[in-house]
Design goal:
By secondary structure, this protein is an all-alpha fold. The protein folds into two domains: 131 residues, Farnesyl Diphosphate Synthase (Orthogonal Bundle), CATH 1.10.600.10; 152 residues, Orthogonal Bundle (Farnesyl Diphosphate Synthase), CATH 1.10.600. It is 74% helix and 1% strand. Strands 1-2 form a two-stranded antiparallel ribbon. A hairpin with a 2-residue loop joins strand 1 and strand 2. Helix 4 packs across helix 9. The chain is globular, with a radius of gyration of 20 Å. The two termini are 14 Å apart. Keywords: Isoprene biosynthesis, Magnesium, Metal-binding, Plastid, Transferase. One of its GO terms (biological process) is isoprenoid biosynthetic process.
């Protein structure tokens, strides 16, 4: 966490402004929804996604200043991300996130679904008011991808015959699409050429995929406290990630345990041992490192600045979570 704070230091005051602006944007028309939103925005997340948008916006600005439209883009990014977390928590029936009660456990499922919808609607409204059709298309695509990723994840639960491509696609939809498309949107608002827009999108895509693969490794190697949720919770839920898919290639008997949904008391422990005693964790790490290298390479053309240095350090930070 300290490392994240350090990396986001160039936009620390921007992020504080963003949080107070978000509270104002939500408005007081719906007391219960506002209470839910207040709870979400004060839940102490790392704010990496809006932080990336703000860092990119400062790195792309000739004066280093933020335009109001770039600030609003960062706010929309955080709204979309928060809305998706509310819905994810309902689907996963998670009682806490990062040690804080989830919206549906603090209020109820109905309020949580409505609060998520409310935030998506608010994001769409503020997005339309940016008056930039390309940015509207980019961020609308993210909202579609988030829903698509959640559906894909549900459809492939406990399915040991899914392809690695399915896993990458799902990871892109759930994690990388928001970072990739909001990075490109920051470039669009800065009037960049197509070549640089493609590089910004690639930066966000590869960084998001590295982030997801690292999260998936930590599901097997991290502590409950480090994860903000019980370890191995993805596997228990039947979500097959890179370490499991790699382990299945080496340990075919793992498939029986997964397809049986760990119905015997020792099945889960056995499955964890099979994953940990294979090359799966090492192979997953190599995969994440490859994505991180590609992300770093994609933005080396940015002019030197404090914000640029922070962005270039992000891929290494993502991998450092494994040490």
């Amino acid at each position: 966490m300290a490392m994240v704070v350090k990396l986001l230091q160039p936009v620390e005051s921007d992020l504080e402004t963003l949080l107070s602006d978000l509270r104002n944007l939500i408005g007081a028309d719906h007391p219960i929804l506002q209470a839910a939103a207040e709870h979400l925005f004060s839940a102490g997340g790392k704010r990496i996604r809006p932080g990336i948008v703000l860092l990119l916006s400062r790195a792309l600005s000739p004066t280093g200043d933020l335009s109001p439209r770039h600030r609003r883009l960062a706010e929309i990014t955080e709204m979309i991300h928060t809305a998706s977390l509310v819905h994810d928590d309902v689907v996963d029936e998670a009682a806490t996130r990062r040690g804080v009660a989830t919206v549906h456990s603090r209020f109820n499922h109905r309020v949580a679904v409505l609060a998520g919808d409310f935030l998506f609607a608010q994001a769409s409204w503020h997005l339309a008011n940016l008056d930039n059709l390309e940015v509207v298309k980019l961020l609308s695509r993210v909202i579609m991808d988030l829903a698509d990723g959640e559906v894909k994840q549900g459809l492939f639960r406990y399915n040991t015959r899914q392809s690695f491509e399915t896993y990458i696609e799902k990871s892109y939809c759930k994690t990388a699409s928001l970072i990739a498309n909001s990075a490109r949107a920051a470039g669009v608002l800065a009037d960049l050429n197509e070549e640089h827009l493609v590089q910004l999108y690639r930066f966000g895509r590869q960084l998001g995929l590295a982030f997801q693969v690292v999260d998936d490794i930590l599901d097997f190697t991290g502590s409950d406290q480090q994860l903000g949720k019980p370890a191995a919770s993805d596997l228990v839920s039947g979500y097959l990630t890179a370490p499991v898919l790699y382990a299945l290639e080496e340990k075919p008997m793992l498939a029986d345990l997964i397809e049986g949904k760990f119905n015997q008391g020792i099945d889960l422990e056995q499955a964890l041992e099979l994953v940990r005693n294979s090359e799966a964790i090492n192979r997953s790490r190599t995969l994440a490192e490859g994505f991180a290298r590609e992300a770093h390479k994609s933005i080396q053309w940015l002019p030197s600045s404090e914000a640029c240095n922070a962005l270039l350090a992000l891929p290494d930070f993502v991998i450092s979570r494994l040490s």
